[in-house]
């Protein structure tokens, strides 16, 4: 078998592994799972047959280069030595993926171990074998559960849990980012952030990640901080309605870039109010978009809390409100200014 053929087959395994730690596994069935482990065992056979050959060093370099072309974008980095542990890596990757279907768990154990006997005492030892060069990051099962149960605002805005989840993700990113080039790291972080926005408290966690990384001065944290703010700047449809106000104000005080993003969101929300004249009553402001908890009192509360952050923010906020209040004789910004006085 030629080196070119071997590389093509290995690339198929690495591509399958890459899919195994993405949300694509939601579509997997028993056949897909078995196919993944077939490729993993093929990779182990390749490692066994070629490990003593003279061209292994060159093969190792080519394997590392091929990961750059993975789709979806990934931080997966594979070397020749990892091929010898391909089944273990595949198993652990799927076990850690919150998108892996629970209905396939038994198939997963059987595909990896071929039998269920004595599996429990083997897994602890084998977990430690996962190579540090396979750098993948998935959102943990606990985080997914805490983001999908309960609808009460107190639970949704539990700042302690949000900060804990943010720290967990930052710790993972901090171990990954230094090992890969900046372009690939940026692509991977954006994919992670996009996945976060799908969770109930995901935006809160993203804001907390930005705050925590911004308060840390090392180069890696600052790089992650830059990735996050660029993501927020380019995704103007993100809503901060379910983010704890204290977290928004604290983060706005840290960085003018986030402050601008938050103020622009508040302005946009206020622009979605229209005046309403209930029969026999004075006018009132009514939100025209499907934000269940957004009313005039709430929007004023956001502006009020932000204006209390510091004198500079208060001046900037009032300047912005004055600017918009001049657009017409009667608009919501004049009433917000009155509320802040």
UniProtKB/TrEMBL annotation:
<dbReference type="GO" id="GO:0036297">
    <property type="term" value="P:interstrand cross-link repair"/>
</dbReference>
<dbReference type="InterPro" id="IPR035428">
    <property type="entry name" value="FANCF"/>
</dbReference>
<dbReference type="InterPro" id="IPR038505">
    <property type="entry name" value="FANCF_C_sf"/>
</dbReference>
<dbReference type="Pfam" id="PF11107">
    <property type="entry name" value="FANCF"/>
</dbReference>
<dbReference type="GO" id="GO:0043240">
    <property type="term" value="C:Fanconi anaemia nuclear complex"/>
</dbReference>
<protein>
    <submittedName>
        <fullName>Uncharacterized protein</fullName>
    </submittedName>
</protein>
């Amino acid at each position: 078998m030629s080196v070119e053929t071997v590389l093509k087959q290995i690339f198929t395994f690495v591509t399958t592994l890459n899919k195994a730690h993405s949300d694509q596994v939601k579509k997997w069935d028993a056949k897909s799972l078995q196919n993944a482990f077939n490729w993993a065992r093929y990779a182990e056979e390749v490692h066994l047959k070629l490990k003593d050959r003279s061209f292994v060093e060159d093969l190792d370099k080519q394997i590392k280069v091929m990961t750059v072309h993975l789709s979806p974008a990934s931080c997966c980095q594979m070397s020749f030595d990892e091929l010898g542990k391909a089944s273990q890596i595949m198993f652990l990757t799927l076990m850690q993926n919150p998108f892996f279907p629970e209905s396939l768990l038994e198939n997963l154990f059987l595909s990896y171990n071929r039998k269920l006997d004595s599996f429990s005492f083997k897994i602890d030892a084998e977990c430690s074998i996962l190579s540090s060069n396979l750098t993948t990051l998935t959102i943990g099962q606990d985080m997914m559960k805490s983001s999908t149960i309960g609808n009460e605002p107190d639970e949704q805005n539990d700042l302690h849990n949000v900060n804990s989840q943010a720290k967990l993700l930052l710790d993972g990113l901090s171990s990954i980012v230094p090992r890969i080039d900046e372009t690939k790291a940026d692509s991977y972080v954006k994919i992670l952030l996009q996945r976060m926005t799908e969770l109930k408290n995901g935006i809160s966690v993203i804001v907390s990640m930005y705050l925590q990384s911004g308060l840390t001065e090392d180069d890696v944290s600052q790089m992650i901080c830059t990735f996050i703010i660029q993501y927020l700047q380019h995704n103007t449809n993100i809503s901060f309605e379910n983010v704890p106000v204290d977290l928004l104000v604290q983060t706005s005080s840290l960085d003018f870039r986030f402050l601008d993003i938050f103020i622009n969101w508040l302005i946009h929300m206020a622009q979605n109010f229209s005046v309403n004249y209930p029969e026999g009553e004075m006018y009132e402001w009514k939100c025209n978009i499907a934000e269940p908890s957004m009313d005039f009192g709430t929007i004023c509360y956001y502006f009020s809390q932000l204006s209390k952050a510091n004198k500079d923010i208060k001046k900037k906020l009032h300047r912005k409100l004055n600017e918009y209040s001049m657009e017409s004789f009667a608009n919501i910004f004049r009433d917000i200014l009155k509320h802040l006085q």
